[in-house]
Backbone:
């Protein structure tokens, strides 16, 4: 495998007295799509937040493109090329669709012609966003907000996209359209770390996957292998999997 | 610059030109109300960046007005007056004074500097916590003003400030303040302000540094609060620590909330509406005769009526009259996109 774009080593994160991640290690190669699976509270979102710097790691290291980033403030991490589309969509509801997209390019300090062109590409990818560009984002449907959240993250022109549950609260038909768009991004070489509850959808897009349970990696492998081992994945979710390290 | 901004600036310039004639043609009472309205509108608009756009609901804004008023007062007292009024003034302040415009500008800068010192720790808080903490700031300013006798005459009235604020000056500063705030509010900085108001986590996730972003709104607002305070000092000539406490805070906050937080045109509208209503009601409560019908004086009724109005507006339009929106003049040619930065290059 080539040098990883992202390398997480022995990461430990705690919220007060509650430990959310206990020594998680994972790596992502350039151009790879990695899925992060697991039940609620397994620590998936925490891992993404730690990578984007929104929460601080207690121990361990995060190396992006050869440089440690775990001590950097979030704004600087965005500038090094990691964009985070947070859980629950989190668009700016009172701002228009166009303003939301514009803000995605804010940290990059992009020239006007550049971000205008970028915005056009996302209007092309999700035409409904063009139709609604002057509407406030709060008036969009769940699926449209998710399209906006993903597009806003991509406006930063990241080298790594962190996606937190893009299918959450989105109608199944829209989810399929969204994943089709993500697949086209993957085809263009975008590296992604995807947190997803919809295991089948996630494994259809991803190259590899890790399964988290109560803050530890309990299973990992290629997407094809995990698709074939559905019993093992289910067991890893439920905590009866044999041969994993004790927690 | 968008069409809306150009039209607003045009309106401002025309009004400013008219104000030179108005101050000679209109009765004194009208000129007085208009001047105070302009100063208040500047102060309310200067609350919009922090309170409305970044969601840092500060209750301490009047503390900045006090800093501006006292700074301008101390700086612009003539040397002879300083000797009699403030005999204990430190030597480096005693021997000189500034004229109106420079003292106003320095007062604004002093206030902005205070806001940097105060804002850096306070803006780590958010929501109700920041409101309570900024209220603490207001009380602290009041105590300092009362106890710093040698600079402020303590609780006694500070008087002798040259009366320089005319209607054109007040309106001129209002126009300057609105243009500056409006330009910044529609710039990338203004968008970042509103992003931190909408969702702090999402703002951080796309690389907006929330602390410096909020601080910039807070400090800019404080600068214009200091300017407004200086205009106030130069308008009244005398004031005391009591002038800058809860009553004035309530007045300015209610103007902001009624007009619509996060909107500069809302700030002006709220100021005009509240001022006009309280002036009309104040005259009505003295009682009057309509032919056979005579209304007895009802002192205090105007405050009750205003209070009821606030309640009614909050029930019917909880966002205020304009909410976060600005009054816009739609572009006649292409109404396609209305955001400022996406107008054709």
Residues:
């Amino acid at each position: 495998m080539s040098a990883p774009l992202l390398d997480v080593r022995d990461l430990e994160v705690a919220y007060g007295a509650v430990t959310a991640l206990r020594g998680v290690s994972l790596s992502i190669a350039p151009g790879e799509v990695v899925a992060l699976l697991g039940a609620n509270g397994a620590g998936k979102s925490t891992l993404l937040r730690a990578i984007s710097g929104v929460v601080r790691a207690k121990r361990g290291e995060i190396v992006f493109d050869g440089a440690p980033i775990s001590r950097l403030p979030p704004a600087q991490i965005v500038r090094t090329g990691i964009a985070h589309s947070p859980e629950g969509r989190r668009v700016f509801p009172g701002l228009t669709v166009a303003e939301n997209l514009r803000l995605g390019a804010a940290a990059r300090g992009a020239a006007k012609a550049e971000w205008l062109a970028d915005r056009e590409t996302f209007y092309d990818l999700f035409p409904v966003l063009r139709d609604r560009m002057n509407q406030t984002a709060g008036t969009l449907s769940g699926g449209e907000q998710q399209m906006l959240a993903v597009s806003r993250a991509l406006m930063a022109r990241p080298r790594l996209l962190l996606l937190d549950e893009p299918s959450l609260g989105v109608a199944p038909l829209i989810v399929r359209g969204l994943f089709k768009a993500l697949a086209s991004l993957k085809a263009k070489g975008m590296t992604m770390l995807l947190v997803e509850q919809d295991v089948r959808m996630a494994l259809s897009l991803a190259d590899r996957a890790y399964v988290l349970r109560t803050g530890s990696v309990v299973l990992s492998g290629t997407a094809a292998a995990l698709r074939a081992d559905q019993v093992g994945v289910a067991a890893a979710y439920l905590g009866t999997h044999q041969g994993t390290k004790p927690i | 610059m968008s069409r809306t901004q150009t039209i607003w600036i045009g309106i401002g310039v025309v009004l400013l030109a008219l104000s030179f004639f108005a101050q000679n043609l209109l009765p004194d009472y009208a000129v007085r109300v208009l001047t105070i309205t302009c100063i208040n509108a500047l102060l309310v608009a200067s609350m919009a960046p922090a309170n409305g756009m970044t969601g840092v609901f500060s209750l301490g804004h009047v503390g900045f007005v006090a800093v501006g008023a006292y700074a301008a007062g101390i700086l612009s007292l003539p040397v002879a007056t300083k000797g009699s009024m403030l005999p204990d003034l430190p030597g480096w302040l005693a021997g000189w004074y500034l004229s109106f415009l420079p003292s106003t500008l320095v007062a604004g800068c002093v206030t902005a500097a205070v806001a940097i010192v105060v804002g850096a720790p306070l803006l780590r808080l958010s929501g109700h916590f920041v409101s309570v903490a900024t209220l603490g700031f207001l009380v602290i300013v009041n105590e300092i003003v009362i106890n710093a006798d040698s600079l402020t005459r303590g609780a006694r009235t500070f008087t002798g400030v040259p009366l320089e604020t005319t209607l054109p000056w007040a309106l001129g500063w209002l126009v300057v303040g609105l243009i500056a705030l409006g330009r910044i509010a529609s710039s990338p900085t203004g968008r970042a302000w509103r992003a931190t108001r909408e969702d702090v986590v999402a703002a951080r996730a796309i690389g907006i540094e929330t602390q410096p972003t909020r601080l910039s709104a807070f400090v800019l607002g404080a600068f214009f609060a200091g300017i407004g305070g200086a205009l106030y000092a130069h308008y009244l000539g005398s004031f005391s620590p009591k002038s800058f406490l809860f009553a004035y805070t309530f007045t300015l906050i209610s103007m902001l909330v009624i007009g619509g937080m996060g909107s500069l045109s809302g700030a002006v509208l709220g100021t005009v509406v509240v001022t006009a209503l309280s002036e009309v009601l104040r005259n009505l409560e003295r009682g009057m005769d309509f032919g056979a019908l005579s209304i007895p004086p009802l002192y205090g009724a105007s405050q009750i009526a205003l209070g009821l109005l606030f309640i009614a507006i909050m029930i019917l339009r909880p966002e205020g009259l304009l909410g976060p929106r600005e009054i816009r003049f739609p572009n006649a040619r292409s109404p396609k996109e209305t955001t400022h930065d996406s107008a054709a290059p």
Notes: Chain A touches chain B through 37 residues (CB under 8 Å). Residues 243-247 of chain A have pLDDT under 50 and may be disordered.
